[in-house]
Amino acid sequence: MSASIPEQFTGYAAMNEEKGKKLEVEKWSYTPKKWAEDDVDIKVHCTSICGSCIHTINNGWPSPTSYPCIAGHEVVGTVVRAGSKSGLKEGQRVGVGAQGGSCGQCELCEAGREQYCEKGMIGTYQGKWEDGSVAQGGYADFMRCKGRFAIPIPEGISDEEAAPLMCAGVTTYSPLRRFGAGPGKRVATVGMGGLGHLSLQISTALGADTYALSHSDRKVGDAKKLGVADDHFIVYKDIAETAKTWSRKFDLIVCTANNNDLPIEALFFKLLKPEGALVLCGLPEEKLPAMYGHALVGKGVTLAGSLIGGTTELKELLDLAVKHDIRPWIETRPMSEATQTLQDMHAGKARYRYVLTNKSA
C-alpha cells in the first residue's frame, strides 16, 4: 500500500445503538475490505448527509444496523489508489453514491442498472463485502469501493455541490427519467427537502411543467427561488379540497417525503391522470397505509418505487447538472462536527443539504 494511504481508515462512527439513537458519532479506525484489482481508494474531500444516514445510524430501518457504523454515501474525493481493473487513474476527482459494489456480471449490472443487481447491491456503508467485512462510508478520511461506482466529476461543479447529486439527485433523476418527465408532461414533487429541492430543478431541466406539493406554505419562498411559479405551489393541508381542485391533473408524482401517514389513496392517486404514476423515493420507517385495489385499477394508475440510480444515470445527471446549472442548496461544516450536524439534520434545520468537509479553511 502507498505510504500516503494508511493501513487503517478513520471516520466518525455510531458505536452502538444507544449512541445511534442520539445520533452521536465518534472517531473510530478500521481496516478496509481486502484489496481487489477492481477497487479504488479515495481520499475524501467531502460527504453530505442523507436522511438514510439518520435512519441507519439510529437503527430505524427494518434491516438491523451493524455497529460501529460510519455513514456517508454522497462522497466526493480524489482517487489515490486505482486497481488495474478499476477503470480509473490516480488523481481523478470522483463521486460515490449509495452503492459501492455489485456483482458486475448480471444483465442489470451490464445495463448500468446496478442498483437492482441480481445478487444484491452492496451499499457504500452497511453493505457486505465478498471478504465478509461490513462496508463503511464517507464520514471519514478515506474510503474503498469498486471502481465502477466512483464516477468522474465533470468540470464546472464544485466538490461540495456535486456530493448531494450522488444520492439525493440521482434518486429523483432516475424516476423522472424512467417515467418520461419532459415537455408536455405535468409533474409534481411531494416534499421540498434534500431530495425534493433537487427533484424540482431536475424536472424543470428536463422540460416538464413542474409543480411542488407541500403540506404547508412554509417553503413557498424557496420554491420560487427554485423556479416554481406561484400557481405551481400546491398546499394540501385540506386534502379533500386539494383532491377536488387538482383531480386528474398530473402525469407523474414523485414523492420524496418519508412520513408514515402519506395520503396516498386520499390524495395522490386522485391527482393523477388515468395511467399516471406515483413513485415513492422517500422511505417511511413504518408500513404504507392500507388501500383498496380499486384506487389503482379505476384509473389504471401505477404505484412504483425507485431505488437510487445506476452508474449510467449518475453520469447523465452530472452532465445535466452542469448544462442546466442544477445546484443543491448546501451548508458546509467540518467533518469533526458530524454529531451536531446529524442532530441538526434530524431536527429539520437543513436548507437543504449539510456537507461535511475535510478541507481546511
The shape, in one word, is: globular
Structural class: alpha/beta
Stretches with pLDDT under 50, minimum 5 residues: none
Q: Helix segment count?
A: 12
Distance between the termini: 29 Å
Radius of gyration: 20 Å
Largest sheet: 7 strands, mixed
Order of helices and strands: EHEEHEEEHEEEHHEHEHEHEHEHEHEHE
Short description:
Helix content is 25%, strand content 24%.
Describe this structure in words.
The protein is α/β, with parallel strands linked by helices. The protein is 25% helix and 24% strand. The strands form four sheets. Strands 3, 4, 5, 8, 9, 16 and 17 form a seven-stranded mixed sheet that branches.
Which key features would you list for this structure?
361 residues, 25% helix, 17 strands, alpha/beta, 24% strand
Topology:
Blueprint: E1 9-13, H1 17-21, E2 26-30, E3 39-48, H2 51-57, E4 75-82, E5 93-96, E6 99-101, H3 107-110, E7 122-123, E8 142-146, E9 150-152, H4 159-162, H5 168-178, E10 186-190, H6 196-205, E11 209-214, H7 220-225, E12 233-235, H8 239-245, E13 250-255, H9 264-271, E14 272-280, H10 294-297, E15 302-305, H11 311-324, E16 330-334, H12 338-346, E17 353-357
Parallel strand pairs: 10-11, 10-13, 11-12, 13-14, 14-15, 16-17
Antiparallel strand pairs: 1-2, 3-4, 3-8, 3-17, 4-5, 5-9, 6-7
